[in-house]
Amino acid sequence: MFLEALRYPFADRAQRNGTAKCLAALLLGGALLRTAAGLWPDWALLAPLLLAVGPLVAFLGLVGGVLAGEGFPRVASAAATRLAGRLLGVGAVYLSPAVVTVVAVSYVVARGTVPGSLSGVTLATLATVALLVTVVCAYLFPSAAAASVREGLRAGLRRDAVRGTASSSYFLAWVGATVLVVVAWTALAATAARSAAALLALAWGAYAHVAAAALLAEGVDRTRYW
């Protein structure tokens, strides 16, 4: 399962072309975001920010096709846009609790004092709760995302969408995919902009997300439970 997923981005010409399109979307989106950052605080930054939506949708559509087990869709197609919309929708539902929790705990930690309504609770406890909520949301999200891109957004929001998370194959696939994605984002954050290292990090990011999607798709397809 792991070796097949790692080979997936370059398995044949179609996969290589799809992975290259993912890289192109990341490069274009990154350039637009950097342009927007350079325009801050001018309102002109809205133009590159809005333009960056296109590469984001294209990237999510390509990865969504892999997660659906259907391969890469055409970039400028209704199918790619639909897949991207489903991923964004299910992501908003499953990841928002983690975002809200982390923001709230970060605010409390920044203040250095726990509100009176939470008396007896330490900052370490709050940080632990935030970590647990984040891990749970991150663990359930891929399974729901797979159901969403395959059967529609409503399917990703049903309880059945996360039933497969109890299987050993899904757990192993999630761990492998998480490692790939975390290493990719860490490498990108650690490199200087406009450098060869940043280009390599983006290339690794495109490869890692495609391989992670292929790995999760395989993990979801296998339904053997613990």
User: What proportion strand?
Assistant: under 5%
User: Residue ranges: pLDDT <50 for 5 or more in a row?
Assistant: none
Elements, N to C (H/E): HHHHHHHHH
**Structural class category:** mainly alpha
Overall average residue pLDDT: 88
Largest sheet: none
Number of domains: 1
Q: What's the shape?
A: globular
What is the number of beta strands?
Answer: 0
Distance between the termini: 17 Å
Rg (CA only): 19 Å
Tally of separate helices? 9
Percent in helix: over 70%
Name the descriptors.
226 residues; mainly alpha; 9 helices; 0% strand
Give the helix/strand layout.
Layout: H1 2-7, H2 13-39, H3 46-51, H4 53-67, H5 78-111, H6 123-151, H7 153-157, H8 168-190, H9 196-221
Helix pairs in contact: 2-4, 2-9, 4-5, 4-9, 5-6, 8-9
